[in-house]
Specification:
With 352 residues, the protein is α/β, with parallel strands linked by helices. The protein has helices at residues 162-171, 185-192, 201-209, 226-229, 250-253, 274-291, 318-334; strands spanning 56-61, 68-72, 82-85, 90-93, 95-98, 101-106, 113-118, 145-149, 180-184, 216-220, 266-269, 305-310, 341-346. The chain has three domains: 56-118; 145-293, Rossmann fold, CATH 3.40.50.10390; 295-352, no CATH class. Strand 5 and strand 6 (101-106) form a beta hairpin. Helix 2 crosses helix 3.
């Protein structure tokens, strides 16, 4: 894997070269194999404190070794606009001078200081409601089978919760007599991911918390890759449980740092609605019942039928590489005592 670095660059532009608008061009000089992205770009420039009737503005002040005096014009400050000084956390009420003009003074400061000016009546959003978040107590949970899903999949419209029905099956002697924990992804996001929606780090933290306990972990819910969340549109399938990385991987989601394999055996049912969970549960029950059925050569023949599915769409030779690897695997399965009958379905283009 490549090495990633965070770099910060700074430069100077002559004030005479500044106009009303500019385009910033960022070019890769490291060669075609070096990928990069820009987190942010900013520019500091001298300007009049005239704000075109805006109700909020930010100014950056150079260090001052004595008390300093400032006037702002054309600012929609209302009756009592406020200056909030970032470095010192001071809150200063501006003095009105008439005709949308105001003034204020600041004590001396030894480093660049950002000052936020705002009209409390317009620029601040009022918080009308707070909802409490109650953390779940997982300290004494003795689960060896963990299911993570989403509330939108817990009711089929007729009162059936197929996530819980799947958990009940796994708790039964027929389903393995597991100790099953069903966890809600939004609860996990609040408790293990600082409440940041869709962020997969919450699931990673949750998995690390249970690292030594579960034998299996099942994710129930469709996911899309995190980079695509930033350009989501109505045509995209829902992101119910996020993936990790690009390309997305549940293996990496629950792998230790620097490792490629999960420390918990992990699977995913990429369901988009409860009916898909119902169908999967019925299929699992049927499959596992057949495992315990009376056995003869004819009844066991289905176990030799293998279906390989290969994809790939991230450039390079992914499609051909995946096909070649599955062909080698098919040869191994077919040319030994197992004697598999292998069928392969492969993508032929990089389109989804």
């Amino acid at each position: 894997m490549g090495r990633y670095e965070v770099k910060e660059y700074a430069g100077q532009i002559a004030a005479s070269a500044l106009g009303r608008s500019h385009k910033l061009r960022i070019e890769n000089l490291e060669g075609s194999g070096a990928a990069f992205s820009t987190a942010f770009a900013s520019i500091e420039y001298p300007a009049d404190f005239s704000f075109n009737r805006n109700s909020a503005a930010t100014i950056l002040l150079e260090p001052q070794n004595q008390k300093s005096y400032y006037e702002v014009t054309d600012f929609d400050g209302g009756e009592a606009p406020v200056a909030y000084v970032q470095n010192t956390l001071q809150r200063i009420v501006l003095e009105p001078l008439g005709n949308n003009q105001y003034r204020f003074t600041l004590p001396s400061f030894v480093q660049k200081t950002q000052v936020l000016l705002f009209n409390p009546g317009k620029a601040l959003r009022e918080v009308t409601q707070l909802s409490p978040v109650v953390f779940a107590d997982y300290r004494n949970v003795q689960a060896n089978y963990v299911i993570i899903s989403h509330a939108r999949l817990r009711n089929d419209g007729q009162g059936r919760d197929y996530v819980e029905e799947y958990a009940a099956y796994r708790r039964s002697s027929t389903g393995g007599a597991y100790q099953v924990l069903v966890a809600d992804v939004n609860q996990i996001i609040d408790q293990f991911g600082y409440g940041i929606p869709d962020h997969p780090q919450a699931l990673r933290n949750f998995g690390a918390y249970f690292e030594a306990t579960p034998k299996y972990l099942l994710l129930i819910g469709h996911g899309i890759e995190y980079n695509l969340l930033r350009q989501r549109n109505a045509e995209m399938r829902p992101n119910i449980l996020s993936l990790f990385g690009t390309p997305g991987s549940d293996n990496l989601m629950f792998a230790a740092n620097g490792k490629l394999s999960s420390f918990i055996p992990t699977g995913r049912l990429a369901a988009q609605d409860p009916s898909q969970i119902r169908d999967y549960l019925n299929k699992v029950k049927e499959y596992e019942q057949n495992l315990d059925a009376p056995r003869n050569t004819q009844s066991l023949a289905w176990r030799k039928r293998v279906l390989h599915i290969s994809g790939g769409n991230y450039g390079g030779n992914e499609i051909a590489t995946f096909q070649a690897r599955l062909q080698r695997t098919a040869a191994v399965l077919s040319n030994n005592d197992f004697g598999a009958i292998v069928s392969t379905v492969s993508k032929q283009s990089a389109k989804p």
